[in-house]
Amino acid sequence: MNIIEFISQPWHWSVSGAMIALVMFLLLWFGGEFGVSGNLRTLCAIGGAGKNCSFFDFNWRGQLWNLTFVGGAVIGGFIASHYLQSTDPVNISESTRVYLESVGVHTPVTLEEGAGFVPEEVFALDNFFTVKSLIIIVIGGFLVGFGTRWAGGCTSGHAISGLANLQLPSLIAVIGFFIGGLLMTFFILPHILSM
Amino acid sequence: MKLIKFLFTGVLFGIIMTKSEAISWFRIQEMFRFESFHMYGIIGVAVILGAAITALIKRFHTRNIEGGEIKFNPKDISVPRYLFGGIIFGLGWAMTGACPGPLFTLLGHGVLTILAVILSAILGTYVYGLLRSRLPH
Predict the structure, then answer these.
(1) Contact criterion met (CB below 8 Å) for B39 and B28
(2) Which residue of A70, A109, A136, B105 is most buried, as measured by CB atoms within 10 A?
(3) Does ipTM come in above 0.90?
(4) Searching chain B, which residue's CA lies closest to the CA of residue A105?
């Protein structure tokens, strides 16, 4: 097994968690910090939102390092999907697979069906103008942008950086993430997916 | 040239998000259904090691590459913004199956509809900015 084949296997969760901590350290060491959602505010500012809203009236050039970081994440995604592909799709638990099938979402079992990153029923370009796809993509995306800025951070800023710094507000935010996530998963999403 | 180190860190992050499978919508469903330890293991290890790193940086007053001391800004204590904002984000996270880091990574995977999710997220952030003074914080 060569090095590329070795890296291309799905990583154990402990390896993944350690690598995320490494990214957090590198960003701090380079003079930045680990928090991805702030870039959405920066993109608003670059688009000129500061003209009619003071929240976006700041010197966004000071955030260029973070935009560069997410630009790198796009490239990293490209590299991983082209050169570091696993030999099998994401292998989720049988119970989740069975449940998703019951609401009309097929989990890929071969690479021909997909890598197991996004469900075709929602994210395939051909399905974009279906009701469930539009609801999930447009409303879901809106809630991610609105909620992260109201809470002042997302998974990286609160669940990882904030909890690692023992911040009580981050714990409250993470509890909120789960209240919202569980409500959606158990009570709302099944209806949207069955549309 | 100061930015290139952030570019490489981002590339590493995109690869980590992919190989950890944290970018998988299916993994996020599984996490919220408590049917696997996978995502909890990832976040748990990142938090524990991150806490050790944070404590060591504070203890030794570690300097960053520019020579300045690494500072952590304590967050203002309040409940509403974190709880309500967190709930709104959680609702969106369970729908799209992606938080902001994976969103950008998935774009690199060539999932074009993710661009619509990102644009909606930017719009959501913009609307938050407009309503900000009327929301509890």
Answers:
(1) yes
(2) B105
(3) yes
(4) B26
- Is there a contact between A80 and B108 if contact means CB atoms under 8 Å apart? yes
Buried b (16+ CB within 10 A) or exposed e, A3-18: eeeeebebbebebbbb
Phi, psi of B63 (to 5 degrees): -95, 150
Q: What share of chain B is helix, strand, coil (3-state, %, to 5)?
A: 70, 0, 30
The 10s digit of each residue's pLDDT in B70-128 is 999 889 899 999 999 999 999 999 999 999 999 999 999 999 999 999 999 999 999 99
Phi first, then psi: what are they for B3, rounded to 5°?
-80, -20
Prediction pTM value: 0.97
Give the start-to-end residue ranges of the domains of chain B: 4-134
CB count in 10 Å sphere of residue B106: 32
Question: CB contact, 8 Å: B69 with chain A?
Answer: no
Per residue in A115-158, pLDDT (tens digit) is 999 999 999 999 999 999 999 999 999 999 999 999 999 999 99
